[in-house]
Amino acid sequence: MAVNRPSPGREPLLQLAQVQLAQARRAPGWHGHAELPPQATSSWARAFPGTAQHASAVRRFVTSLLDGSPLCDDAVIVVSELFTNALLHTASGQPDGLVTVQVCRWRLGVRVAVTDQGSAKSPVIRDPGPCRELAESGHGLYMVSHLAERLDWHDDACGRTICAILGADPPRA
């Protein structure tokens, strides 16, 4: 019988997930099923090398976290587009570049955030028009903006973070 062991560096994430699940089980409204109680949120983050070869690892990361969620497929499309944009349009695509992917999940929604290492250019959202050709000109963000309930971004000392909320807004603390 094969035993799946976490890859090096993943143990802290698994421990965090176990603690969060234990907290969710103690929360009011927990009835022993896989769905989170209304007020519970879980959050994970992981940094990936800024290379195209890691796009599939980013998609697997999000898929594993959102398994069973009706928002999983849309979230994977969103993170794939945002990760690719980080590689193509920011310093994260340079040698030794990094991209950080954060996923927050609550009962009725998901937040996907991608932090790159910054760019002098601002993100652009463009309607592809009647020809519907997707090109390197903001058309991917147009698609993301239609999959997400809300899309925004901000710059800080770490770079630029682009956030997409899918489903309902997060619960208020």
Could you give the count of β-strands? 5
- In the CATH hierarchy, the third-tier topology is known as Heat Shock Protein 90
Shape: globular
| pLDDT < 50 stretches | 1-37
Helix amount: 25-40%
Indicate the CATH class: Alpha Beta
Enumerate the strands of the largest sheet in spatial order, edge to edge or round the barrel. Answer: 1-2-3-5-4
Class computed from helices, strands and strand pairing: alpha+beta
Question: Measured on Cα atoms, how large is the radius of gyration?
Answer: 17 Å
Sheet-strand content, in percent, reads 15-25%
N-to-C order of helices and strands:
HEHHEEHEE
Largest sheet: 5 strands, antiparallel
Distance between the termini: 44 Å
Contiguous helical run count = 4
CATH architecture: 2-Layer Sandwich
Q: Could you provide a short overview of the structure?
A:
By secondary structure, the chain is an alpha+beta fold.
Task: List the defining traits of the structure above.
173 residues, Heat Shock Protein 90, five-stranded antiparallel beta sheet, 4 helices, 5 strands, 31% helix, globular
Task: Give a written overview of the molecule.
- 31% of the residues lie in helices and 24% in strands.
- The chain has 173 residues and is an alpha+beta fold.
- The protein has one domain (40-167): Histidine kinase-like ATPase, C-terminal domain (Heat Shock Protein 90, 2-Layer Sandwich).
- It has a five-stranded antiparallel sheet with strand order 1-2-3-5-4.
- A hairpin with a 2-residue loop joins strand 2 and strand 3.
- It is globular, with a radius of gyration of 17 Å.
